[in-house]
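User: Some background: our group keeps a shared notebook of sequences we're curious about, and every so often someone picks one and asks for a predicted structure to add to the entry. Today it's my turn. The entry only has the sequence so far, pasted here. Could you supply the structure so I can complete it?
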Amino acid sequence: MQRTEDSPFKRLWLWMLWPMAIMQLGIFRDYWGDFADNTWAVHVHYWLVTLWFLFLITQPRLYAKGRLQSHRSWGLVGLMIAGATAFTGINQLNRDLVYANFVRDNPGQIGPFEPWFFYGIMCVEIILVSAFLLAVLMAIRHRKNLRDHALWLTSTAFIMLMPALGRGIQGLWIARYGFTPETTIVVMPPLYMTQLLIIGLILTFAWRLRALTHPATLLALGANGCAFLLEPMGRSVTLQTLLSTLVKA
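Assistant: Of course. Here's the predicted structure to add to the notebook entry:
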């Protein structure tokens, strides 16, 4: 991978500070607010995602400084982080199923949420993890092409934003409208707002990097766009049965 002095990717590490900050702000209250009550799996997943975002900052920084050997060496470490991140992400599906079963057996105990919402979250998370893995694999395949390699890796930041940012926005929404079985307004609008914000960020970065039509951009847009189908996917009895069979609570 050859360095290009006037490449727009020389300052990419500075741009990647933004999705890192947004992710941390989004998840801050949900993670740190009940830190001691979180399961070990949640802790591991949180820190792996954090490490991946730091990886997306430090790798272009090393490239910009001309430290290509370090860039390549840390890239191997990044592969392990990516695999572990995806694995622990899939592991979170069990928690979603636990919530789905709980609200089924205890209606109204978690505000207006019904089982279909958590099944929908499971569907979206499967899509996002699959897109994340595909983007990483494509980055490996195009590792000798600076532009493609960087764009595929950059796309992973936006593919991974939804769960953290969604929880943050939903938390603010609940604080505004309350949290009772009657306040159904808290369920979907925060998610739609989250996806619109992420899509706006994707387009902003793609415009900045002159990559609006690049496959990596389209993958990130498509993966996040699937979240708008959360409700119909979650309400599908077929998908509920399939997910309950594949994921055991």
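Suggested note for the entry: The chain has a mean pLDDT of 90. The longest helix spans residues 115-141.
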